[in-house]
Design a protein that fits this description.
Chain lengths: 150, 375
């Protein structure tokens, strides 16, 4: 496998493998059969840190709109609603995570995948995702900082 | 009026959750046993119309009030204000997000400070009388003692003469022996200490409209909530509202209006669409509260979720902006009403989004800060 791209989050190296595509909402996507297997990027996992809880609000095999709320995640550092990264169909969820979401931390790019997805939307190349990270990093820090200061 | 006790109103949870009912009853029972307060029980405040017996009872009460309910304190306060139950903000020690320097030393001072107008840019409430209303969220703690102790603390502070600041009205002349109210109520309760009939009184029992008359301490006023329907409407926090009128422009259902002074007002509460918090999202001052919404910021939480200091990464993970969400929610309600969706073409705020201009911080500092935040 070719070397992954790296995005520096301060001192932390977020690895962006080049064997897959990306959504702007910090998810990777890789063809698995005729479906896209979707998971958190190492950038997202670094911000989340230890995942304690993952809950899906939709049933498997649901049609979703772009930005529709589909689940909730809680980690040692953060909580978030999870949103559909594009219009499409969420076909099935990674059952292994429902018992043990820590797989998201242990193996974000393989066993920690979230769900399988079908969409006709276009995705980002790894280089394009790095550009998204570059463009958003300052804003992300600002957001984190503002939330810490509250 | 010597020995007049502080009025404590318990606003019951909607529904019949036995755990919540138990907490309500325990608090009432313990307050009555200790003789700390005059206790009344009313249905869930947010569901009461302003002509409901429960609201009329609240309006009839004079002096300081402690109101406990299953809502954020801000929501309690502004629901009361909306219904003409007005007063200055009493600072409770409960429901605090963070209480860094919690000095025990000068209780009277803190009561005085509580009366100062909080610095804010809102247009403020009108006709606020010189009395304090303490609003307390019962979701804070399952232990009745927490609330009883806090109410005892408040009652003690309030019975200290505050002549220099209190003006004419409230408890300035009611100092009691040792700062503690006298109690005569314990003997009226039965041996178990249980409060008979609190949870199943019917109709508008015991409502007399002369609360200054001494009542036996064991007879709480209980106003039942049978048949009350759930409601959904916005509540304006005038300590934040700047009267910018963006809500009245955005809402297409005629909920908002203005009063004779051209102040924004929720005119037709029941025109509001159940579940729709869209106007709250467009409010630039975060002054519109939907007390029953699941998002704490919309439901009236002070800073964020009460027990939750975690950062919210929703924006990173693709959350729609507040405006996108508001437009979507409004369209859903328009279509449900058989009208056409208008998208972002009508009533959209003209302002620029308040871009933050803070200087950039060192990356490493931030990531270290992230690690150091030991939550």
């Amino acid at each position: 496998m070719p070397d992954p791209l790296v995005f520096m989050m301060g001192k932390f190296e977020a690895r962006i493998p080049t064997d897959r595509l990306y959504f702007e909402s910090h998810l990777w996507a890789q063809m698995n059969g005729d479906l896209l297997r979707v998971g958190f990027t190492s950038y997202a996992v670094r911000l989340l840190q230890d995942v304690y809880f993952l809950d899906w609000q939709i049933d498997p095999d649901s049609i979703v709109r772009h930005k529709q709320a589909i689940g909730e995640i809680e980690s040692s550092k953060a909580t978030s609603t999870l949103y559909a990264p594009a219009e499409g169909r969420v076909v099935r969820f990674n059952e292994a995570l429902l018992n043990d979401p820590s797989l998201i931390n242990a193996d974000p790019h393989e066993r920690g995948w979230l769900y399988e997805f079908a969409t006709s939307s276009s995705l980002l190349q790894p280089e394009e995702y790095i550009k998204v990270l570059d463009a958003g990093w300052e804003k992300t820090q600002q957001m984190l900082k503002n939330q810490f200061n509250e | 009026m010597a020995g007049r006790k502080i009025n404590v109103i318990i606003s019951q949870a909607p529904g019949k959750n036995p755990v919540k009912r138990h907490l309500e009853e325990e608090i009432a029972t313990q307050l009555i046993l200790s003789g700390t307060a005059e206790v009344s029980v009313v249905p869930h405040l947010y569901d009461l119309t302003s002509d409901h017996t429960g609201m009329l009872w609240l309006k009839s009460l004079k002096g300081d009030l402690v109101v406990l309910g299953w809502l954020y304190p801000r929501a309690i306060r502004w629901v009361l204000d909306r219904n003409g139950v007005k007063g200055k903000v009493g600072e409770s020690r409960l429901n605090k997000i963070e209480d860094a320097n919690d000095d025990e030393d000068d209780e009277q001072q803190s009561a005085i400070e509580a009366q100062d107008e909080s610095p804010s840019q809102g247009i403020g409430a009108l006709d606020v009388p010189n009395r304090l209303i303490f609003a307390i969220d019962l979701r804070d703690d399952p232990d009745p003692q927490t609330y009883v102790k806090e109410i005892e603390r408040i009652a003690n502070v309030m019975t200290v003469p505050l002549v220099q600041i209190s003006g004419i009205d409230f408890q300035s002349s009611s100092s009691t022996q040792n700062g503690k109210p006298t109690t005569n109520g314990a003997s009226n309760l039965n041996g178990t200490g249980h409060l008979n009939g609190l949870s199943h009184t019917n109709g508008a029992t015991h409502v007399d409209h002369s609360p200054s008359v001494e009542k036996p301490a064991s007879a709480p006023v209980v106003i039942a909530g049978d048949g009350i329907r759930r409601r959904w409407y916005p509540v304006i926090d005038y300590s934040r509202c700047t009267n910018c009128m963006e809500c009245i422009d955005f809402c297409l259902f005629g909920v908002y209006g203005v009063d004779l002074l051209d102040r924004i007002l929720v005119e037709q509460e029941d025109n509001c669409k159940k579940g729709c918090p869209a106007c709250s999202r467009v409010c630039p001052a975060n002054a519109i509260v939907f007390p029953e919404h699941k998002t704490p910021g919309i439901a009236g939480a002070e800073g964020g979720p009460v027990e939750d200091f975690k950062i919210d990464l929703s924006k990173l993970f693709g959350a729609p902006s507040a405006l996108e969400m508001a437009v979507l929610e409004r369209d859903v309600e328009l279509v449900a009403d058989g009208r056409d969706a208008v998208g972002a073409t009508v009533g959209i705020p003209k302002r620029q989004s308040g871009a933050s201009t803070k200087p950039r911080d060192a990356l490493d500092d931030l990531m270290d800060g992230l690690d150091a935040l030991d939550v």
